[in-house]
């Protein structure tokens, strides 16, 4: 009564609130804002990165993905959570590898830079050659190498980043793949085989890698399949393929 203009103003604001969609809240907007800021701080996949033949990123550095200076203040566990959370929303392969495991893999990769991996198919197996090039591991199907030789393009590349290995005790890994030839589950199967053969404690398993590199005439393809089946990796992929194609 004393101030009709103030009363009308309050009534208008109340009507606006009523018209807002159910579920809208400032807390929700705050969370979305914070998530967006986190993406800007930690992950800034920059445009303009060069791509090599086959569509893979050329010189894919950790700085092009992660704000390294910002995460140096965080613990290894926090970095692991950030890395996994970011890539879990993407259709790709990723991992956080303990420093000791990567160190063993890396030392062995210097002596044995290539190996033959078996990928379970609906009927039988398809073989892929994995070739280390620095900290990148390139996979190409054996049939492509047989038909195209050294010009055969990569179909999967695993990128390993040891920048945080000494300080945090972890090595970050992500990948790019040619989706015309591989789906994520298949790429993951190949990626899982790398520590199986290069970081194993079983001398007979790593002996296969040594034989492939230094005594190729003595190498037996079926030994790779036997190791794969014994590890359980081969059995894990087949049900997925069956459900995808049913």
From TrEMBL:
Top-level taxon of origin: Eukaryota
Bias (Basic and acidic residues): 7-19
Keyword Aminoacyl-tRNA synthetase: no
Region annotation Disordered: where it falls in the sequence: 1-27
Compartments, record wording: Mitochondrion
GO annotation, biological process: mitochondrial proton-transporting ATP synthase complex assembly
Keywords for this protein: Mitochondrion, Transit peptide
GO cellular component labels: mitochondrion
The keyword Electron transport is assigned to this record: no
Similarity comment: family membership: Belongs to the ATP11 family.
Name this polypeptide is given: ATPF1 factor
Organism: Psilopogon haemacephalus
Gene that produces this protein: Atpaf1
């Amino acid at each position: 009564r004393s101030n009709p203009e103030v009363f009308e103003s309050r009534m208008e604001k109340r009507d606006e609130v009523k018209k807002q969609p159910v579920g809208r809240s400032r807390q929700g907007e705050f969370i979305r804002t914070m998530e967006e800021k986190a993406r800007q701080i930690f992950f800034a996949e920059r445009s303009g990165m060069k791509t090599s033949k086959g569509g893979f990123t050329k010189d894919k550095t950790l700085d092009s993905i992660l704000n390294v200076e910002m995460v140096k203040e965080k613990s290894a566990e926090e970095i692991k959570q950030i890395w996994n959370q970011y890539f879990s929303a993407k259709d790709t392969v990723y991992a956080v590898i303990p420093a000791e495991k990567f160190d063993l893999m890396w030392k062995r990769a210097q002596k044995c830079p290539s190996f033959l991996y078996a990928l379970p198919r609906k009927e039988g197996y398809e073989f892929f050659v994995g070739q280390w090039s620095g900290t990148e591991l390139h996979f190409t199907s054996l049939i492509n190498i047989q038909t195209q030789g050294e010009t055969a393009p990569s179909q999967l590349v695993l990128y390993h980043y040891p920048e945080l290995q000494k300080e945090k005790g972890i090595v970050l890994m992500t990948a790019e793949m040619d989706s015309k030839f591989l789906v994520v589950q298949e790429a993951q199967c190949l990626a899982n085989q790398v520590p199986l053969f290069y970081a194993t404690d079983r001398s007979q398993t790593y002996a296969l890698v040594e034989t492939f590199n230094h005594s190729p005439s003595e190498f037996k393809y079926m030994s790779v399949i036997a190791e794969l089946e014994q590890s359980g990796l081969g059995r894990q992929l087949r049900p997925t393929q069956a459900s995808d194609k049913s």
